[in-house]
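yo

u said u wanted the structure for the complex thing, so here. seqs first:
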Amino acid sequence: MKFKKIPIKYFQRSALDVAPFLLGKLLVRRINNNFLVTRIVETEAYLNDDPASHSFGRITERNKAMYDAGGQFYVYFIYGNYFCVNVVTNVKGHGEAVLVRAVEPVSGIGEMIKNRRNIKNEHDLTNGPGKLCMALNIDKTFYGARTDGEDLFIAYDENPGDFEIGISKRIGLSVSKEIEHRFFIKGNIFVTKHKFNN
DNA sequence: CGACCGATTGACT
DNA sequence: GTCAATCGGTCGG
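structre next:
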């Protein structure tokens, strides 16, 4: 399989630009030379002056990847069960990232299903940040890995097609609830089901 | 070292 | 719609 990986420089700008840019791009996982291909349909931007961001405050062992140069993955563990994957943005020292909240399976769906449990319907497979990491078997081994790497990378979709981008408040926060830094593909069934879907 | 809490999910009313 | 599981990260003593 041939992929056109996105050069790292495209991630070395504001998370607010990268978040909508990532919509419609491919998030690809290679396992044993088998490619699990997905299309990104929902993202959220986190800046370092945002109390909801893991980079808020100071540099710690967990958030240090966010302060490193853009174009690498920031993976974190949450609620004792789940991993979530982000793309670090901007140049070194900013503390920004874009959370990948939902993807649409393109190929390798059978393998993704094997990695998940209790799937209720088709879109349940990857319509959430924890779910997509399970389906693609993404864990902390990708912490700090480049976005143009071999086993997990981001690529252009050769035939992206037309879609409209929606913007809304972010999901699951107890602070900074009013900031509209969530971006999604309108009408896509893999976008997380919530109050803010248009 | 102990205590608190979370960028979620799945089970349940 | 509500709610608890579950444990690593973080911070205070």
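The longest strand of chain A covers residues 34-46. Chain A has one domain: 8-185.
cya
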